[in-house]
Write a structure and sequence with these properties.
Number of domains: 2
Number of helices: 6
CATH class of the largest domain: Alpha Beta
Strand content: 15-25%
Radius of gyration: 16 Å
Helix content: 25-40%
Length: 195
């Protein structure tokens, strides 16, 4: 089967948890998978040895991770030369009108400004990990919740991730790799990623 590299950036562990679930599905479908958490300067990754890429990054304070974005821009040619999938993890995706890729402002903005041209994209709601936040972060996130939808921030840790959605995305990749079903059209050119 195929050799897949999963590259991700995760601040609080939810994106890594999503990557691990996807990895188990790809392994179960017979694909060989390597994972790399993009932190700091990552320059010694041999991208040519892989058949496909799965990229994921969480959003923090309105932006995808700096190290992740830097790596993608430095390696966009190699990443775009093979089937490349991308997903964004953010709390905005917990809302019904922001869960589809073309509705999610963080995902659409990233794709507009990035050199990455994935064949498929997805967005997943993240987790609210109150126990890991300091006083300032708790106040800021409470304000964000009030401004974004008028709700109060959860009073305890809460996971919003739709695991069935995560599994369907991984299954799509597994099936497309097994069947060689790549049309060559990029998500940026499809309705999936347009704002």
């Amino acid at each position: 089967m195929s050799k897949v590299l999963m590259l991700f950036a995760s601040s609080e562990g939810q994106t890594q948890k999503i990557i691990e679930r996807m990895r188990s599905i790809l392994n179960h479908n017979g694909h060989e998978v390597d994972t790399i958490h993009l932190e700091g300067s990552t320059t010694d990754i041999r991208l040519k040895q892989y058949d496909a890429f799965m990229l994921g990054s969480s959003v923090r304070y309105g932006h995808h991770h700096r190290d992740f974005c830097r790596f993608v821009e430095q390696n966009a040619g190699a990443l775009n030369s093979k089937p490349c999938y991308f997903f964004s993890v953010n709390l905005t995706a917990r809302k019904a009108n922001r869960i589809e890729p073309h509705q999610n402002p963080y995902l659409t903005k990233y794709l507009r400004n990035s050199s990455l041209q994935p064949v498929d994209v997805e967005v997943f709601a993240g987790a609210f990990k109150l126990s890991r936040y300091n006083f300032f972060q708790k106040q800021l996130l409470s304000l964000i919740f009030r401004i974004s939808d008028g709700s109060s921030a959860p009073s305890e840790d809460r996971e919003f991730t739709d695991w069935c959605r995560v599994e369907r995305f991984a299954e799509r990749l597994a099936q497309q790799l097994a069947g060689g079903q790549f049309s060559g059209s990029k998500a940026r050119d499809s309705n999936k990623a347009k704002p």
